[in-house]
Write a structure and sequence with these properties.
By secondary structure, the chain is of the alpha+beta class. It has 5 helices and 4 strands, in the order αααβαβαββ. The protein folds into 2 domains: 101 residues, Ribosomal Protein S8, Chain: A, domain 1; 75 residues. The two termini are 13 Å apart. It comes from Iris pallida (Sweet iris).
């Protein structure tokens, strides 16, 4: 698989959605209680920018109607600037609201690789790791590998999955002999993205 192409495609879906629960500065929301207050606090900066933008556009329209085209163009450009600032403030507010409301939610996704050949299983695992890097509400990936035909701890699939997990520095624990729980939050780059080094 061409992991670089996959990363570019996934990144295009996640534009502006990079939330960082672990190392986020305290959002504005923590100052108050109540959902409506939270919304008002976060959106107040954007609202001010939208109001300023409207005022500049109205002044530009008046200047244009008076024949002051250069002044109208200048006012319009200032309005565009405040429009951009308002959109950015809205996006920031959206992130802060999302982070505040979801910081204590720990979601787990389970994938069952049991019965897969090692190469295909590792490819599927890498794909899921990349996808969930860009989905901040997923913190854990439960990977069912099975125990292997040679008994607990000796299966090729589980050994290969553990090899990848350790190589990538992913925090993990063993739920049972055939299931691993991987902690995903915070990790953004994987070494396998640079090459095509699937096992076997």
């Amino acid at each position: 698989m061409d992991w670089k192409k996959i990363v570019k495609k996934v990144e295009s879906f996640g534009q502006g959605l990079e939330f960082t629960f672990a190392n986020t500065e305290e959002p504005l929301l923590n100052a108050r209680n109540g959902k409506q207050d939270d919304y008002q606090i976060c959106r107040s900066v954007a609202r001010k920018h939208w109001d300023t933008m409207r005022a500049f556009y109205q002044k530009a329209a008046v200047a244009y109607s008076r024949g002051e085209r250069a002044h109208a163009a200048s006012l319009s450009e200032t309005g565009k600037y405040y429009s951009k600032m308002a959109r950015e403030a809205d996006e920031k507010a959206s992130r802060e609201i999302f982070e505040a409301r979801n910081k204590d939610i720990k979601n787990t996704v389970t994938i069952d690789l049991h019965g897969q050949h090692v190469k295909q299983a590792i490819g599927l695992l890498k794909l899921h790791l990349l996808l969930f890097t860009y989905i901040p509400s997923i913190q854990f990936l439960k990977v069912i590998t099975g125990c292997g035909v040679d008994g607990p701890g000796k299966g090729k699939l589980k050994t290969s999955v553990l090899g990848l997990v350790v190589k990538e520095g992913i925090e993990w624990c063993e739920e049972n002999a055939g299931t691993l729980l991987l902690r995903l939050d915070g990790l953004k780059e994987y070494s396998f993205v640079g090459g095509d080094d699937d096992p076997e």
